[in-house]
Amino acid sequence: QSESGDALEFLEHIKVDLTNIPVGMDLDVKLYRNLADCNSDTPLLQSLNLNNADEHIDWSEAFGSSDDSDYFIKVVPYFTSSCTLPYRITVNGLR
User: Helix, strand or coil for residue 78?
Assistant: First the structure.
């Protein structure tokens, strides 16, 4: 591989999929760079699809940026939340 190819392998690439959302629920998913951003609700990226449509986040770090943060993912009910109805969240990335 080339030097630029090697360097790109060290960039953070985070993929979040929120699926199998029950009918009648609307859940959103948000990605935050650190706890302070999570507490102030300042997401790095978010997915705000309507109703029970699947939510997806696909974020890649810019070359030369710092990845020394703890990333946070939050599932947020837009309406009709439940403590018993299941959904699926899949997270890939975060080396």
Answer: strand
| Average confidence (pLDDT) over 65-85 | 82
Tokens standing for 45? 């990226």
What's the pLDDT at 76?
92
Count CB-CB contacts under 10 A for residue 34.
Answer: 14
d(CA 25, CA 50): 9
C-alpha dihedral (42, 12, 88, 83), degrees to nearest 10? -40
| Length, in residues, of the chain | 95
For residue 6, the surrounding DSSP H or E stretch is helix 3-8
Q: Is the pTM value of this prediction over 0.70? A: yes
